[in-house]
Amino acid sequence: MGYLEPTSTQGSRTVPIFQKVLEMARGGFTLDATGLTVGETIPAGTPMVFDEETRKAKKATLTGTAPNETSDAKGLLYTDVKIEANAPVDVVLRGTVYARRVTPEIEDAHKKALPLIIFSESR
């Protein structure tokens, strides 16, 4: 029997991007939609940062210039999330992701910030 992705009311992805999820941030978070367009979708696998106290999560950012860019990423978004008020967000902290299925492509600085996530080149 194969591994099945959980059903999500948020996501519409039919091809899983995670090969294996070993650890997720506990308790889930609410999307901080500041600066985002309501109605658009953030794809699964997007680098995310979260605050344990406020229980808010947002897209990770890059600082600096290549090749010295750094990222504040703490994990990857588990499922596609439609941007709306109080959208639920789950973040993967440790596991394996199919790097070729993540869109848009993750920057090297994000990968460096996520040492517990394996970016597999298999299909």
From TrEMBL:
It comes from the Bacteria. This is Bacteriophage lambda head decoration protein D. It comes from Chryseobacterium defluvii. The lineage of its organism: Bacteria, Pseudomonadati, Bacteroidota, Flavobacteriia, Flavobacteriales.
